Amino acid sequence: MSSIRSRRILAAVSGGLGFALVLTACSGGDSGGDETTAASGDCAAYESYGDLSGKTVSVYTSIVTPEDTPQIDSYKPFEECTGATIEYVGDKAFETQVLVRAKAGNPPDIAYVPQPGLLNQLVATGAAVEAPQTVVDNIDEFWGEDWKGYATVDGKVYAAPLGANVKSLVWYSPTEFADAGYEIPTTLDDLMALTEQMVADGKVPWCAGIGSGEATGWPITDWMEDFMLRLSGPDVYDQWVNHEIAFNSEAPTAALDGVGAYLKNPAFVNGGLGDVNSIAATAFQDGGLPILEGTCSLHRQASFYAANFPEGTNVSEDGDVFAFYLPGETEDVKPVLGGGEFVLAFADRPEVAAFQTYLSTDLWANNKAIASPAGGWVSANKGLEVANLVSPVDKLAATILQDPNAVFRFDGSDMMPAAIGSNAFWKQSTNWITGQSTKETVDNIEAAWPAS
């Protein structure tokens, strides 16, 4: 990000003007200052698309109220610059309906696609269009090859990333760590050493819950995915997700055993909640709450878990509870498990290409951060200024995503066939935590894999 653009965005935040300053900048004004010059350049960038006044771009997404408000607000600079209007529709049934609409020849102009597998399905309908070169250039500038790969189908780039989330986190009590002299682990060996030290100090360190109605078991799939990345690396992880290696082969078996070293060790779990079997009976929303009671010290769960702590909980580095990055095998290897959305277009009209380009810029990422005063949003865009984020957890997630050593991978179960990712994997993981062996578990999941 240029220093001029950075100053303008940060000034908007510190001055409390929010979008007013950004909008004023975009719509021109006095040409005497650096900020105005940069702002004129922002609007001038859309001149190549022609007169977009009165044009409309339809956006279809799964992001609904109240999370849709910051999204819609973040479009205002684009609308002010171009005179175009963004028609936003959020739908909880998006993942089903967007495919129906694409197949029926009635897709939106742009869809925010939350899974690479769904993106591939939408491209296969023939309704999607390749990303314009301006978008591809922004992807190359602001994201790594890992993100670009998820948006590429048959060698063609179709979409830029939008938002992101981080799952590779461990929640803890900063007060407990300070009082006991514990340090944040930076390797897997450090994590095990910390766990064993807590046991030596008379604690039951880990707490967990995997109860989630028909989806009971999914938190263990996240654990296993994190350990696949850490023990075998991203290439083997990709092979596993795509079933290029069997689910019951050596690497997945080692990953589940690695999880079991924590979750199936009665000395390590289930702090404040019971024994190992209590993990299956505990709702995932409640799994980390014992940290606040001092009966548990560590809980592996995604960044969104911050919302599960009671109102008034200070979630920060010096607060009641916070999180640290689940480390890799070495300090310089930073695998990151998570999710995100991609901006896929179904039309190549100038106004659609212009808006798609705006969403792929560092300017939009920072405008979105400014428009999200309640937090709860982050992007892997390298041009996102961490200082523009409000929530300490969002800042932590952005810092992890922007680490030059970070290698990002999407949640594996979300990309596996539904018969596995949202069925056998969940169910067999639940059986595993309640006593089934690792071998029987991976064998059963492999046997459930669809033949085609």
From TrEMBL:
Source superkingdom: Bacteria
Coiled coil spans: none
Alphabetically ordered keywords of this record: Signal, Transport
The keyword Membrane is assigned to this record: no
Entry-linked PROSITE patterns: PROKAR_LIPOPROTEIN (PS51257)
SUPFAM superfamilies associated with the record: Periplasmic binding protein-like II
The keyword Signal belongs to this UniProt entry's keyword annotation: yes
Span of the signal peptide: 1-25
Record-linked InterPro entries: Bact_solute-bd_prot1
Transmembrane region(s): none
Similarity comment: family membership: Belongs to the bacterial solute-binding protein 1 family.
Protein name, per record: Carbohydrate ABC transporter substrate-binding protein
